[in-house]
Amino acid sequence: MRTPRLRTLAAIGGVVAVLATSLGAAPATAAPLDKGRFHDVLDETFDCNGTRTHQGGDVFGSFTYVKRGRGLAYYRESVRGTVVFTNVATGGTYSNNFTANSRDLKITDNGDGTLTILSQGSGMSRWFDKNGTFVLSDSGMFRFSVVINLNGTPDNPDDDFEVDGSFVLITPRTGRADTADRDFCADLVLFTT
User: DSSP class of residue 190?
Assistant: First the structure.
């Protein structure tokens, strides 16, 4: 089974920035080339600018690859979960509930062994303090493109890779962006003490 290509995009804007809305569906007769579900359990301790922090959580998701049109495989992924950051010194928590979706909208064969993929992401992230009070939110949609090198093996997606520097933001994120200019570690201390 191929590792989901766009799961790494979850890191953009912290798990939440990878987000998508369905604009079209594959033909009813199109069977997925690959599909699956995943469940990641988070359990680690790290230093957040001098604050010892435990990160725990559950992240669930699903993905599919479906051939469309000229036989190019389109990717779709949905992720949801809860991540809890605990300030080890105070025992207070800073929690995040989120959903994120991504979907390939258009794939262009560049004729040189690469594909340009236009994708869209959408979703919501809600943050809660140690008392369970809602404090911050991020939500919205954005579109971007990347160039994927097929590595000379168009029928083997396992060795494909993103061309360095090919990421282009087509449509900046819409919606609410409460955490955009904030320092996560400072917020961790603020909301857990």
Answer: H
pLDDT at position 72:
86
Query: Cα(154)–Cα(101) distance, rounded to whole angstroms?
Result: 26
Burial class (CB in 10 A: 0-12, 13-18, 19+), 47: exposed
For 8-12, 54-58, 76-80, which range has the lowest pLDDT when averaged over its residues?
Answer: 8-12
Question: Strands 134-149, 32-48: parallel, antiparallel or unpaired by DSSP?
Answer: unpaired
Rg, Å, the chain Cα set: 19
Task: Give the tokens for residue 83.
Answer: 């991540």
Q: What is the pLDDT of residues 149-179, one digit of tens each?
A: 999 888 787 899 999 999 999 999 899 999 9
pLDDT surpasses 70 at 113? yes
Please list, in sequence order, all residues whose beta carbon lies within 8 angstroms of the beta carbon of residue 105, skipping any fewer than 6 positions away: 23, 24, 118, 119, 120, 143
Closest-CA residue to 179 (of 10, 6, 60, 15): 15
Query: Rounded to whole angstroms, how far apart are CA atoms 61 and 36?
Result: 8
Amino acid at 119: S
